[in-house]
Please model this.
Amino acid sequence: MRHCTRVQVRWFQGHIGHELDETADDLAGLALRRAGGRIAPASARKEEARIPRSLDSGGGPLSIAA
Model:
């Protein structure tokens, strides 16, 4: 089987303007910093609690009763 050596790179707008995607990105970044030891555990816990609260207080999807 012949392998293709041509690679095409394109940029696509991702999380900007999408509240849930931005929240997921924030949580993923926090997890990466925590796993790498670049944030103190107490600070990480505060951030983990703050991120979903900020989404909910903004009238986002989390404020809708299920």
